[in-house]
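Batch job 17 of 40 flagged for manual review because the log was empty.
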Amino acid sequence: MKRQDIPYLTWAVWLILGAAGVFALATGHWSNVFMIVTAIFLTLLPAMFSARFQIRLPLSFLTAISLFVFGTLFLGEVYDFYNRFWWWDLILHGMSAMGFGIIGFLFVFYLFEGDKYAAPPWALGLVSFALAISIGTLWEIFEFAMDQLFGLNMQKSGLVDTMTDLIVDSLGAFVGAISGFFWLKGRQLGLTGMIDEFVELNRSGFQKVKEKRPLRRRDQGET
């Protein structure tokens, strides 16, 4: 990934995290140092993934991932937003689950080279939903591991927090998956704009979309 392909907001997140990391080191807040280093690593993962697999990620994807990690590990854990604002955790989990639903759909669709006839839309939507739920579950396992290994308090109220997060994850994953379903049906709903952007940036991996995807009104107007 080239430097100009990285959103300005991602650069801003890295700058803030870097400055906060230096301050945490200087003041000896080692738990904050750990959280900040983890956050920086997670924000770097999309760029590493993009370079490794030669996939172009939309700026909206990169921005959303950076803001989610920033809001979860930095604002949520370091600055205790989870306890200050009861709705903070719900919003972050819901938005991330919708994003993971879209990512799951695109991943499966990419394997078929954009051939929507290789599997029915409902099947692709179901797999997308399952993948998003799986990622949400892995995150809950990560929180549990951090609490047990490093004495943190990422789970807050324990079982209630975990189950509430999973319920919100399920709702968000459904929205993401249903957006992919309707995109295959040629309809604009929810997050379908992000799907359009990703497909356009990675046309070589979605060659069959050009051949078989029904033209929408916007496409018909251009021909």
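Reviewer: the log was empty due to a logging misconfiguration, but the result itself is present. The chain is about 75% helix and 0% strand. Unflagging and moving on to job 18.
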